[in-house]
Amino acid sequence: MPTTFQFPLWFNMAAGWEGYFATEGDAYSIDEYDANGRLRRIIRLAREPRPVTEEVKAAHEAWLRERMLAPGAPIEGDSPEQVLQRRLDEPYPATLPSFFQLHADPDGNLWAVQRRYGAGGDGRASAMLDYFIFGPDGRHLGVIALPDNLQVYQIGTDYILGVVRDELEVQFVHLYGIEKGGRS
């Protein structure tokens, strides 16, 4: 049986106007390919990988316990305690994933999403996600934070459209305005 890790890496892609972007989540880099699959460039962020600290491990394990032992938790097969123990036995990587999700907007900007592990005390992440924004030239423009329960469906020129689900799985549409600097 293959080894699974806490904080797995996620390969992710996003369609761009002239090709696509891809990341494996193991480094602060994103590959840009043309429509024929040829590598055009690599967009890198000068940042060291985040280490998996004891604080992050403790918070993550507390979050796993709360989630898996909650009444009505979707556990199939073995008891919740057995499933929890298997999850707790999974090894930790040395570093946390970098980007796990990519989006491209109509202006040619690339949005790369990163979790804030341990920052909110729930182990998996804080209640926010960081969206690193790169311009069409690959230059890092900045970072914004959005709620981690927001499922982003579209990033427009001046908005972000997504859905948030409540504890009963009722969906609520959220629309956030984007104010860009440097415009006259």
Descriptors:
11 strands, mainly beta, 36% strand, 4-stranded antiparallel sheet, globular
Structure notes:
This protein has 184 residues and is mainly beta. It has one domain. The chain contains two helices and eleven strands. It has helices at residues 54-68, 80-89, and strands at 12-15, 19-23, 29-34, 39-44, 101-104, 110-115, 128-134, 140-147, 150-155, 159-165, 171-177. The strands form three sheets. It has a four-stranded antiparallel β-sheet with strand order 1-2-3-4, with no helix packed on it. A four-stranded antiparallel β-sheet has the order 5-6-7-8, with no helix packed on it. A hairpin with a 5-residue loop joins β2 (19-23) and β3 (29-34). The longest helix has 15 residues, at 54-68. The protein is globular.
Major sheet attributes: 4 strands, antiparallel
Query: How does the overall form come out from the CA principal axes?
Result: globular
Q: What structural class results from the helix and strand content?
A: mainly beta
Number of strands: 11
Total helices: the number is 2
Binned, the helix content reads: 10-25%
What order do the helices and strands follow?
EEEEHHEEEEEEE
| Share in β-strands | 35-45%
- Strand line-up of the largest beta sheet: 1-2-3-4
